[in-house]
Structures are given as structure tokens and as C-alpha cells.
Amino acid sequence: MSSNAYKPPETLHSPVMMQPSMYQGFMATVKRDSLIAIRHRGEMANPLMFFLMVITMVPLGISPEAAVLASLAPGMIWVVALLATLLSLDSLFRGDFEDGALEQLLVSPQPLYFQVLAKVLVHWLTTGLPLTLMAPVLGVMLSLPEAGYWPLMASLFLGTACLSLVGSIGAALTVALRKGGLLLSLIIMPLYVPILIFGASAVSSAIDGFPIVGQLAMLGAFLAAAVVLAPLAAAGALRISVNG
Amino acid sequence: MSQTATAEPAIPRVGKPLLELRNLHCERDERLLFSGLNLSLYSGSIVQVEGPNGSGKTSLLRLLTTTSVDYQGEILWRGVPLAQSRLDYLNHLLFVGHLPGIKKALSPRENLAWFSGLNSGHQRCSVESALSEVGLFGFEDVPCFHLSAGQLRRVALARLFLTPAQVWVLDEPFTAIDKQGVANLERLMGEHAAGGGCVVLTTHQELAMPQVQKLNLMDFRELCNAHEVEDSHEFEGNLYE
Question: Is residue A1 part of a domain?
Fold first, then answer.
């Protein structure tokens, strides 16, 4: 350490200090979390492997008959996607809590709302989006009727984003508990029920030839509400968890 | 705020205090940590918080960093209660905690880029020169899990070079740092104070700087009544801080 490069803090009161850029803070967290997700690829693949394995087992365990599987497929894929998301939620804030990064986030001049939103966005990009993209392949395995593919992807696209957002509340509430996994599921499950109902019913209605605009509109409304409210609740919960 | 004289070892008292603690009372798990704590931090102050393990040093720093609000009394930032001036205060605060928030999967450069992004890119020097200042030249792109404990601590302390923040709150900054590093860090804190900043730190190490103000938390425990003191002594063997 040499002293020549050190500049005394002359700029302590420069007016630029007064305006922290939310966009920059948001992007910094998105970038950092994406990098961490890429470095820990194995962890990222866990929920996807779970999704794949359960769906592979269904024909073996129940019946390989196409007619039986086709009637099960929409609900089955949705339930497993939901559980896979739930599996991955516990680690949403845990790493940051354990190494002090969460404290740094609270102490930073950034609004916690956007920081939570950034973390949830990365969570969705690394779980919800891959699940959505994988779903048609699993649909083939469960002989999902042709009319069900696009509705399945559309409903999962909207639905998994809701799952990540709503789940962040539970993850934030239980982050300080050493064994929060079960409690997290209990808190979050009831909130997931409406998303599951509308998501699965969108796919089965499409297969039966009914319009699904209503279900997708409901999922869209859930998503809009979740984007606005869930990070607020999660940010509050994080403050309580760190305070405790 | 005007600059303080650098040569004088006396505690500088220039202008209004930056941060003021008034009659602070803090309990944790029904155990009194301190009571009647008054402290004014001026630009140029360096305060070393002392006390045995479990005396509430970290709790005090948590109050100062607004991550905990379990207290009675007042904390004022430039004369305004923290509740109203929180964002402005956080804008001027640098906190390096006991757990410094360094991600082991990322390189030092990526770690510091995140901190600088949270501060909207306001920094005094480049990430590279901050890292070379703390003796990590050539380690910029090595994943942090390859670094030693001391080197990890240095990554966290590189933020001191980066940040234009005025108030530094440092929890055990000397942990795992070698002798030369400690000397450099002390000099850096001295320069920061001379430049108009203020520093609050906890450490069990004796600091060589003459202008350090010492704050022993045990002094603020004896103010409370004898019954509570007895209670608090029961827990003294506890490592919980």
C-alpha cells in the first residue's frame, strides 16, 4: 500500500453524491447475481433436474397409456414446476445473509425494493424461465395434446414469475432461521394455490377447446400485483430478519 | 464543513457534529448493553469502541448503520433524526462489517464492481488501483475462494479507497490483517479524518494514532442500577456479541 494514489476526500460534499442512480444499482445486482448463478451452475440445475426426474417417473409409476397421461399432464407439469420453484427459493437471500452482503444492501443508498426486484429477476431467469422452456419437452413425455403446448408455455411464463415474486416474501421472512425450509413452504403454499389453479386450468381448457384469455388475464393480473407488492413485503421482511 | 488541522493530536471539534448520539439505551435479549450513551462525532473524529466480548460493540455499530432500530434515545445526522435523514446518511456512510459481504464465487474486481454500482459508480479511484493499494495487485481476476482470510479482508478494505463516503463504520477491520497492513490502515484512517471524514471502529488492538477517542461501553453499563448490572454479569462468559 503506497500513499501516492490516495486522494483525500475533497469531493465529500459534491452534489453528485446526493443522487444514487437506481438503474445502476439495479443493474449491478442483476449482473452480480447472474455471475454467481453462472459460477454455481450445479445449484442452478437442481430444480430443473427435479422437474425432469419427477415427470420422467410419472409414466412409469402411473400408466404409460397416452390417454391417462394426457389428462394428467397439465396439472402434473404445473404442480412439479411449482415445487421445483419452491425448492430453489430457500437460497434466494441465504447466501447474502450469511456472508454479510445483505447487510451491505440495507446500508447502501439504494431503495431495497429495486434491489429485491433485481434478485428476484435473476432467480426467475435461472429457474422460472428454464422451467418454461423445458415444459414442452416434458409435455411430449406425458403425451400432452397438441393444443396444450402454447397455453402451457404462456401460463408457465406468467405463472413462474409470480411464483418467484411471491416466494421472495417467504424467503425474506425465513432467511434468519437456520432451518427455515419447512416454514417457508408453509407460508408460501397457500399463496401459490390461486396461481396453480389458474395456470393448470388454462392448459386443460385449451386442450378442451375453450378460450383461455380469462385465465391468462388473471395470471397477468397476479403478476402485475406481485411486481408491485411482493418486493415491498420482501424488503420489509428482510429488514426485520436482519434486525433480529 | 471546514477542514481540520492535521498536525494537532487534540480531538478536533470543528463546526456542528456530523453524527450525534443522545442518551442512547440499548437492550438485547432482555440484557442491558448500554444506557445513557452520549457521543458526538465531528468531522475529523476517530472513535474506537472498546469493551469485552458481548459488551455490545457490534450492537452499537448496528444502530449506527441503521440495520437495527432497537434503541431508545436519539441518533442525529447533521442535526436531523436518522428516521428523516436516513437516505442522505446512507449516502455518506461506508460500513465494513465483521462479515464483509465478499462473494467467494466472484473475483475481487467483480465484488468491488458491485459495491461501486450500489453507490452509483461514485468512486475516488479505479477498482484496479484500489486493489493494488491493498496489496492485491495481480489478484484482480482470481476467484475469491482462492484467497486467504487476510486477502479476503483486504478486498473488503479496498472499499475504503474507493468510496467518497464521509462516515466510516468499521467492525473489527484489523482481523486477519498483517502488521504492515494494520499500519497502512491506521494511516489511511488518519488521512480520512484529516480530510474531513470521521471513523468509528471496534478493535481490541491498541491504535498508534494520537487523535483516537476511546469509548468504553462498560462505562455506560455502570450507570444503570445494581440489579441490572448483576444480571448482565451473569452473561459475561457468553461469546454472543
Answer: no
Tens digits of residue pLDDT in B56-113: 888 899 999 988 888 888 899 988 998 888 888 998 899 998 888 899 999 999 999 9
| CA separation for the pair A42, A44 (Å, rounded) | 5
Domain span at A70: 23-243
Overall number of domains in chain A: 1
Residue A44 lies in a domain: yes
What is the 8-class DSSP label of residue A233?
A: H
User: Model's pTM, two decimal places?
Assistant: 0.86
Q: How far is it, in rounded angstroms, from Cα A184 to Cα A176?
A: 12
Cα angle value A195/A198/A203 (rounded, 5°): 125
Mutate to test the interface with A, among B42, B120, B151, B174 (most CBs of A within 10 A): B120
Instruction: Specify whether the backbone of B74 is left (phi greater than 0), alpha (psi in -120 to 50) or beta.
Output: beta
CA distance B26 to chain A (A): 13
Residue A213 lies in a domain: yes
Low-confidence ranges of chain A (pLDDT < 70): 1-20
Q: Do B93 and A107 touch (CB under 8 A)?
A: yes
- Classify residue A3: in a domain, yes or no: no
Chain A residues 142-201 with CB within 8 Å of chain B: none
